[in-house]
Amino acid sequence: MLEVILFLLIVVAGTGGELCVSRAMKAVGEVKDFRPAAIVRVIGRALRVGWMWAGVGLMALAFFSLLGALSILNVSFVVPVTALSYVAGALGAVFFLRERVSRRRWAGVFLVSLGVTLVFLGNR
């Protein structure tokens, strides 16, 4: 049961964090100037967006959940199962960020899901 909770935290919190950071950076705007002073200004603007802090917190939760999973399970099982975050990411992109996901990308998501299923079944 602990393993399931850890995997859910890894996938949901990790993907949620990435989606929040993406929303924050869309609010900040495209980075066009890569000089050090301009980068510092972009970072400063990003740190004033609430979505950034939510994203960082969720990603930290996912990271520590990953550490917990790696402490009790084999890396050859943990890493492929965390690939379910690709599925969650595509769904989050559609529903949270209102992005369009092409058929080719959905096919890739399906293949990742199939691969995770094979890894999971091979662990039993």
Order of helices and strands: HHHHHH
Note poorly predicted spans.
Answer: none
Number of helices: 6
The N- to C-terminal Cα distance equals 15 Å
User: Main sheet, how many strands, which sense, barrel?
Assistant: none
Percentage of residues in DSSP E strands: under 5%
> What is the residue-mean pLDDT, rounded to a whole number?
93
Tally of domains: 1
Q: What is the oligomeric state here?
A: single chain
Number of strand elements: 0
Give the overall silhouette.
globular
What percent of the residues sit in helical stretches (DSSP H or I)? Answer: over 70%
| Helix-and-strand structural type | mainly alpha
Return Rg in Å.
17 Å
